[in-house]
Fold each of these.
Amino acid sequence: MVLMKNLDLLTLTASDLQALLTKGDVTSKDLVKCMLHQITRYNHKLNAVISTPPKDIIFGQAEALDKERKNGSVRGPLHGIPILVKDNFNTDLCLGVDTTAGSYAFVGTQPTSNSRIVQKLVDAGALVLGKANLSELAYFKGVGIPWGWSALGGQTQSAYVSGGVRPDDGPGGHWNPAGSSSGSAVGVSAGFAPVSIGTDTAGSLINPAIRAALYAMRLTVGLAPMEGVLPVCPLYDTGGPMAKSVKDMADMVDIIVDRSSPHVSADGYAQFLCGDWSDLSVGTLDPAIWYFEKDIQMPYPEATEQISRETRAAYERIRGMAKKIAYNVPLVNGPPLAKCDSDGNILMANDFNHALKTYNKTLGSPLIHTVEELVKFNEEHAGKELPTGFDNQDILKDCVKTHLDPETYEALRHSTSRAVREDGVDKILREYNLDVIIGPADSDMETVYGISGYPVVTLPLGYLDLNGRPFGLAAITSAYGEATLLRVASAWEKTFSKRRPPKLE
């Protein structure tokens, strides 16, 4: 038997833990105990987890899965593996954790069942060890609030950066863990669970994962079923996994995709982990123009220079191995992309009220029924929901007053989609004969993939000399190109330096 104190939760992957379970060196109950201890020890300073189940519930679930294993039945690679779930995924009361999206307005609303993605994970043998903190309402409350903050969970902190989030650093500055799937990323990096699940509307998976040195995949919109997830905008919302290895990420993708979709790989996604660049044609984005503006991230010249230098060095390293590389491809950027972002925000504001009403049908005891009621709830509970420094709900107020007629809605939807899809990503891939486009993850790439609905994968690269924060790239391709992205990620993982765990003490 492996002594629990010898388990390095900061580096062990789900695949590593599954191997130990298979050999009988540990039990799933052992893993639950060990990871609950890790949460107890460090969550008070990281605020990555909002809630964990009562021990009798989670221990009982682990024991049942251990019994299945003993009897010769193993459901798959996540059998008996603890996971974290972003707290906007509905979890049935039998799992022992609430679903709040970080808002007091959703405490005790009692989802009537698991979201479809959570149910898929549970059916695959995963143990829901906790609900992860997030930017409240998936950052659909107010502009300028620091990423990773929720009224219920507080400010999520990076496991890599000491000193905590700086209020003068911008909402997504270098000391911030990013969001909105903040706790899902920080929790995995801190060893609270080997894998997690999050949502993404425009960067909510990719940004926090890259700042935790994790592999994450945002799936093509519609490829994973989003029923039972507190929404932002069904037009753009999707889900995806975070993990320390590409294999774990692929295993998670296999589980959560909608198997009824004709776009899903029938033989699974692990087959695409080739670890080879030779058949891949890559386009790159210029780090000199792809970055976050100062309204999101205060610029530090030394950080900007390091990210640019190491990004260009990574491009050069790939050049010697890839089938083809095209530098600085002209993907839509600048004012045209800013226009898409603005119009996309209008579409989201228009859709949220209806989406919220649809979501409320999944709750047994909803406290609020409309965006107007949510705004009023926050005002009536301002001490909790709108404390000083976090007292902005202008996004919600915009939703109250945004009502597009069908013609205007369709015109905006068509123009924004076309700009980033047919005239954006698709055009670049076609004209340059490429498989994928890669560029700095901390950038307006989030607008491109958010509005296009296209899949993206993170490519961890380095750690800032400024403060130790991880940084890296993101890769995007056309709709349903998850297999291509897994080929890229597996080649990247084989090429670049091994992940460096954080120092939690």
Note: The CA atoms of residues 239 and 491 lie 23 Å apart.
Amino acid sequence: MSSPPSLKLFRGFPSKPAYVWSPFVTKLEARLRFAGLAYTTDQGAPVKAPRGKIPYLHISKEKNGGSEMLSDTQLISEKLVAEGLADDLNGNLTAAEKAHDLAFRALLEDKLYFYQNYERWEQNYYTMRSGVLSALPYPAQILVGKLAYNKMSATLYGQGTSRFTPEEITKFKTEIWENVDALLTASRGKAMNKNDGGMFFVLGEGTPTEADTTLFAFIASGLVCDAAPETGKIIRSFPTVMEYAKRIHSHYFSDYELWNYEK
């Protein structure tokens, strides 16, 4: 019997067993762990990544000596399923449920993501710069940080987020988390009625779907990112959201340090 492929995840942050500030890194880690796939981590860099994006995954196949470098969390998930390395998390969903799953992920990845980046890069720039560029010497942090800020600032304006006031963006973020909490509260009640042992997932299924990889990632990154104090405060204000995240942490990420409950 051939050995399974070796997986190395490049996270863009120093390699240590801890959550990082990028929700997409944690999303991919959750996907791998939900599938029971072992992997190692390394720092990596956008300039070395396919598509210039963090995270990216290196798959080394012992059977034929081949290897692949993959980028984009959704495409990586689809590749793992196509090659039989991971089960399709959404395989048992109806067409309507798959649409709900996709819409939920889009809400976080294509809307909340930009609100959070406004908070990180526009409102807490120096904390963000020192956090994401900590591996660089300080003079390089100034130069690279300025380039990253200019790029993000242009993106946020072009996408539309920075055309709103800070108060409006806070309102938008809070509204999203309020609705997330409502979904999780309903799912928790459904799981308790079924006596499912306490685990509950955002679509109310008995097992995680792709939506859970995204949701858990946005919760975890929001709680550990020092450049997102407002987001952390909002998330911590919803006990069911915190309970959901802690249960996933305890079951799948027990080797990682748990976030602070008060900050």
Note: The chain has a mean pLDDT of 93.
Amino acid sequence: MAQTPYRQIRAVYDESTITVYQAYCPEIAIAAVQQQKLSASPKFLPARMTWIKPSWCWMMYRSGYSYKDARQSHILALKMKHEHFRELLMHAAVTQNQSGPLSQEQREKPVRVQWDPERGPRLGVLPYRSIQIGISAKLSTKWVDEWVASIEDVTETARQMKRVVDEEPDLRREDFVARDLLPKERPYEVDEELARVLGMD
């Protein structure tokens, strides 16, 4: 089996869209699903940095399978068209692991990227990285209004996964996949220009 690259995007995607995840409070999530718009609830604040991620397991880690924080109790799967996902990332500055403060150019970028340790189904650390994408107020409205193609609440899958993690300690990764508790994420190819922006080369 080929070794997973240290920095690689892995995601659920098809010919037209890629899926990313974020967790929200019930008021934001329920309205967002009903109206298919994240800003449907007045509690959604575009001025706040929003962090999305294509890794299901990292979303489980960040939200504690949706149990960690009432403000993150509903997990949404957000689909974006490939061209919009690329455009989003082309606006990014990679902001971690640097010795000094951000440069003026980095501070002006409307998107932040961090490469954090990937997680397994039981949230153990894996030896490669997962991308986290922070969308600032400068781009948030465009992302919400134009680039989120569909919204689905996947909280129950996260909670079923947590029950299985607690009750079946010997379950293997492929078993989680077979039970539809772990999405079949595949390497997501990017072009050379975007790879340079994301620090992947």
Note: The CA atoms of residues 31 and 40 lie 6 Å apart.
